[in-house]
Amino acid sequence: MAGACALVYVGQHTGLAGLERDMSRESEPIGAVLNGLEIVPLDAGDTPLETVAMVRYMDAEGQTGWALRKTSGVSEVEVIGALRVMLNHEEAAYEAGWVPDTDDA
């Protein structure tokens, strides 16, 4: 899906300057951008349409941060809604005492 890349940085050292710089960049296939990362696939027969992704990254100076990426067909309202649903799900799971294993140490 070609189009402008939208992002918002929410890391320790990045801000809105990164948003303005990257808004004009062309989109690339998600597999090329996130090469080497793995996720659980969709169920058989499901067709991916759009995505919203939170990406933890390390810059050239070794600083880490988070970047939000979305495909061009996702509106800002849909991003907010998707993040709220995910936050509610994660909070409920945490409160229930179940926390998934992570390798983010």
What features would you describe in this structure?
- The protein is of the alpha+beta class.
- 30% of the residues lie in helices and 17% in strands.
- It has helices at 16-22, 30-33, 76-95, and strands spanning 6-9, 52-58, 64-70.
- Strands 1-3-2 form a 3-stranded antiparallel sheet, with helices on one face.
- The N and C termini lie far apart (33 Å).
Keywords:
105 residues; 3-stranded antiparallel sheet; globular; disordered N terminus
In a nutshell, what does this entry contain?
The protein is 30% helix and 17% strand. It contains three helices and three strands.
Describe the strand arrangement of the main beta sheet, using strand numbers. Answer: 1-3-2
The total of helices stands at 3
Provide mean pLDDT, rounded: 77
Shape: globular
Helices and strands in order:
Blueprint: E1 6-9, H1 16-22, H2 30-33, E2 52-58, E3 64-70, H3 76-95
Antiparallel strand pairs: 1-3, 2-3
